[in-house]
Amino acid sequence: MPGPVVGWLCPQGPLPLGSRARRTLPLRSHAVTVPGDAGPRVRGSRATRSPAPPGIAPPSALVLRLQEICGEDNIFWRAEDLLVWEYDAGFDRHPPSAVAVPGSADEVAAVVKAAHDAGAAIVPRGAGTGLSGGTIACGGAIVVATTRLRTIHSIDAIARVAVVDPGVTNLAVSAAAREAGLFFAPDPASQRISTIGGNVGTNAGGPHALRYGSMVNHVLGVEMVLPNGEIARFGGAVADLPGYDCVPLIVGSEGTLGIITKIWLRLLPLPEDVRTFVAIFPDIDRGARAASAIIASGVVPAAMEMLDKVTIGALNAAFDVHLPADAGSLLLVEIEGLREETEDWAASIERVLKKNGATDVRSAATQAERELLWKARKLGYAALARIKPNNYLHDAVVPRTRMPDVLRQVNAIAERYGYVIANMFHIGDGNLHPVLLFDARTEPIDRVMEASAEILKVAIDAGGALTGEHGVGLEKNHFMLWVFSAEDLQAMRRARDAFDPVGTMNPGKIFPGGDACADIPTERTKRALAEGMWV
Ligand SMILES: Cc1cc2nc3c(=O)[nH]c(=O)nc-3n(C[C@H](O)[C@H](O)[C@H](O)COP(=O)(O)OP(=O)(O)OC[C@H]3O[C@@H](n4cnc5c(N)ncnc54)[C@H](O)[C@@H]3O)c2cc1C
């Protein structure tokens, strides 16, 4: 049997979760790279407590109308109040012309109607943890945030369905489902902050997407405010309704079809047994081969994650996790199912890991140890701020068998450009997350984007996809030309036009070209890179 993980993670035995680890979180908030609920406090903003001082333009007619709908405290329009809404966890930034934070679906509908009538574009926003610039307000758009829509309406344990508002966090749904003896499978690493609306918008994945699939497999229905302000419902508590199924089209539509105001989620029974293993490898190559070998052996783990040496070092420096400092890579493998199954799989996984070069294999002995391992994995991104203040991350997907070769090429690109690179990713489903670390105060962003585009190209040339879970957003819109023909993109536009013929919702996202976001400096660079590398 594999040894216990105690000793690496916490030499004195399991830590009470959230105690020391939380105390040792010295990370400072940094411009565009540190995750978090980027929305400001909803109430009491200076935006609305006093009239505009002399010399400052008064609120527009649209802002006045939005104030009537949502209340003055829930509309932001002054330049200084808009600053915190101009970015998400991705790289680009641009201020919206105003922000509305409605308190009900009816208010969302009235806000959308007012914006539509005023000819203003609209950007839906959850917690702003998106990593592809999906909430950046291009083309003078207003932002509509779901911060106040945070009710879990019901958890039906018999039907295994949860009905929730879009602003509820992913973790809150998981916790509520667990209390009802059920399990909500999508678990993005951002789950403490990211919202279900944002998870639907991006078709979020997470470690457990390997076995259970991403959000699209867990959304039964949505209520959505259409771009003209109508409220429509697609699907619902019952799966497989007759007629066209628009739900999978809406999931992953990145706010380009409407604003989701209620979601029906599929819940699953809790597995009887869960086992979590950590394997240490001398290098990333052997770790990647072992991951492929596990799947080839016929076992499909619930999750399989890889951390490289740089990430392990950053985690050890930032938190009290005590991972083996000399590890070249670490594989986190979780299996779940009936006890008889997991016993068999456990033996087989350990054999495969060792055969493929693991120098040590351990397993979590308790639920607390298991949660600690996952906490270490999910804090990996934040820990990278220990090394450099900024980072640039993509989430290309590559066929699993090409993983070792692609990782070698990705690391070679980073070395050629002279960047430290961290790799921490969902290796089980081939979802890469190469993170280029840099300091935006001294290093030009254009060069970082150039290296990053080369990495994307390697993944595409290996038969991969542009994005596995973060969405296309503003960040990869021009690179869509690498994978889709003009006809493909036109067909997608026609689907979008069926919902939004005028282009009110989230302009400048997903599709390449157009001038909605032309005043964002990095847009020009991306366009040139996408076009240059295509030729
Ligand atoms: C540390 C960290 C770890 C992460 N780990 C993962 C991971 O493991 N897996 C993963 O998939 N992602 C991950 N992400 C990315 C991000 O958390 C997800 O994309 C998440 O789904 C975004 O949720 P959000 O509430 O922050 O949405 P936002 O960033 O606010 O919005 C994301 C997109 O959804 C749209 N949207 C938001 N709300 C609505 C709505 N109500 N109606 C219609 N459209 C809407 C927005 O317009 C935008 O296009 C991570 C991010 C960070 C910072």
Keywords:
binds flavin-adenine dinucleotide, Uridine Diphospho-n-acetylenolpyruvylglucosamine Reductase, domain 3, Alpha-Beta Plaits, Uridine Diphospho-n-acetylenolpyruvylglucosamine Reductase, domain 2, alpha+beta, 535 residues
Question: What does this molecule look like?
Answer:
The protein is of the alpha+beta class and 535 residues long. The protein folds into 4 domains: 1-13 and 272-383, Alpha-Beta Plaits (2-Layer Sandwich), CATH 3.30.70; 46-145, Uridine Diphospho-n-acetylenolpyruvylglucosamine Reductase, domain 2 (2-Layer Sandwich); 152-269, Uridine Diphospho-n-acetylenolpyruvylglucosamine Reductase, domain 3, CATH 3.30.465.10; 388-535, 2-Layer Sandwich (Alpha-Beta Plaits). Helices cover 34% and strands 17% of the residues. It is built from 19 helices and 19 strands. It has helices at residues 20-23, 46-49, 61-70, 79-82, 105-118, 170-179, 196-202, 209-212, 247-250, 284-296, 309-318, 339-355, 367-378, 380-383, 403-417, 445-461, 480-483, 486-499, 521-534; strands at 3-4, 75-76, 98-100, 122-125, 142-145, 152-156, 161-164, 182-183, 219-225, 231-235, 259-266, 268-269, 273-281, 303-308, 329-337, 360-363, 390-393, 420-425, 434-438. Strands 1-16-13-15-14-18-19-17 form an 8-stranded mixed β-sheet, with helices on both faces. The longest helix has 17 residues, at 339-355. The radius of gyration is 23 Å and the shape is globular. The model is unreliable at 10-49 (pLDDT under 50).
